[in-house]
Amino acid sequence: MAEPLRVVVTGAAGQIAYSLLYMVAKGDVFGPEQPIILHLLDIPVMMGVLEGVVMELADCALPFLRGVVPTDDPAVAFKDVSAAFLVGAMPRREGMERKDLLGANVKIFKVQGEALDKYAKKDVKVLVVGNPANTNALICSRYAPSIPRENFTAMTRLDQNRAQAQIAAKVGVPIQQVSNVIIWGNHSSTQFPDAAHASVTVNGQTLSAPEAVKDSAWLDTVFVPTVQKRGAAVIAARKMSSAMSAAKAASDHMRDWFLGTAPGRFVSMGVLSDGSYGAPKDVVFSFPVTTKNGKWEIVQGLTISDSARKSLDVTGKELEEERKEAIAVIEA
Ligand code: NAX
Predict the structure, then answer these.
(1) Percent of the chain scored above 70 by pLDDT?
(2) Per-residue model confidence as pLDDT tens digits over 204-243
(3) Does the CB atom of residue 11 touch ligand 1 within 6 A?
(4) Which of 25, 52, 330, 332 has the greatest number of C-beta atoms within 10 Å?
(5) 22, 53 Cβ separation under 8 angstroms
(6) Could you tell me which SUPFAM superfamilies the record lists for this protein (predicted)?
């Protein structure tokens, strides 16, 4: 029997965590037979709500959930964890742009970087979900110098899943028949959802997504903006931001990182940029990656069209601006 894995979820009393905790505890992320000890971090006023979440986890009667540690103390929450889902932050409300959140949220990620540095395992894998996710991940990594910087990632998997779902619906195939859609850049409305390298299996035949869709205007004028604005559309309809789908995406991201991507398939993750594809260095930029043995690698050699180049530059520039603003907020 494997040793229990300690996994922290921050914002554990919030709405994304409400779906995510069940997915993690029932084995969707680390494998169905991996014992898990869940560390749940939230702020002091949420401890009563968190108590209810703890009761529900017990009542789920999950065989591989070996312990639950609810706390408002980062020293307890991050102690000896091997995986961290950093969800806790102020969520975006209707009419708010992600930039509005930056000032409030980057400070949280500085504190959590320091706590990870002090208390977590040195090989901890960190997934930042709380917005602005890319820049929060960058700040968090800067304040955890004893943990490799490549262990800090940001979530763009929800955008990837949304993009995959749009193409599957357009072509009329099940979702698993669409692969290798890419999200480039920032998890914001400047992200570039790119179907040029995606494949779709139709009637047993693998086609490129543009061939399968048979409508290049749809890709440019419907697909791209629909994916870019999907978060806002969900808020407008639900009056709350995406939660169930965000939790599913977080578990997909962490599972692929721990357990590896399938041969021939890549996924999108916000990772520390090395300047691949002309992206700015030292920002957390979403790239297509493959994963193996717990490590990610950026997929190289994809052709970038002139219009894609422009889109990559726009989102890269936004990330550079966010980095500047975040540093100014922290140093103020
Ligand atoms: P909720 O408001 O339901 O939950 C957030 C929780 O975080 C609350 O319980 C709050 O008390 C807690 N929290 C606040 N500060 C904290 C701190 N310093 N330490 C620990 N916990 C703290 O928001 P929810 O809908 O769960 O969304 C969480 C975050 O995910 C938001 O920042 C949201 O913008 C972001 N999202 C990111 C997505 C992505 O694709 N990267 C998509 C979904 C979502 O919008």
Answers:
(1) 97
(2) 999 999 999 999 899 999 999 999 999 999 999 999 889 9
(3) yes
(4) 25
(5) no
(6) LDH C-terminal domain-like, NAD(P)-binding Rossmann-fold domains
- Give the closest residue (by CA) to ligand 1 atom 12: 11
* Neighbouring C-beta atoms of residue 235, cutoff 10 Å: 18
pLDDT tens per residue across span 44-62: 999 999 999 999 999 999 9
Longest dimension (CA), the chain: 59
Q: Give me 223's structure tokens.
A: 């697909």
The answer, yes or no, to whether the previous bond of 132 is cis (omega within 30 of 0) is: yes
122-173 pLDDT, tens digit per residue, is 999 999 999 999 999 999 999 999 999 999 999 999 999 999 999 999 999 9
187 is catalytic: yes
Pocket probe for ligand 1: among 15, 42, 81, 107, the residue whose CB has the most ligand atoms within 8 Å is: 42
How far is Cα 222 from Cα 278, in angstroms, rounded to an integer? 26
Domains of the chain by start residue, with CATH: 5-154 (3.40.50.720), 157-322 (3.90.110.10)
Ligand 1 atom closest to the CA of 243, numbered from 1? 25
Per-residue pLDDT of 74-106, as tens digits, reads: 999 999 999 999 999 986 666 766 667 788 899
Which residue bears the tokens 């072509």? 171
Average pLDDT of the chain, as a whole number: 95
What is the whole-number distance in angstroms between the Cα of residue 16 and the centre of ligand 1?
Answer: 7
Instruction: Find where tokens 């000032």 sit.
Output: 103
Q: CA torsion 7→11→15→16, rounded to 10°?
A: -50
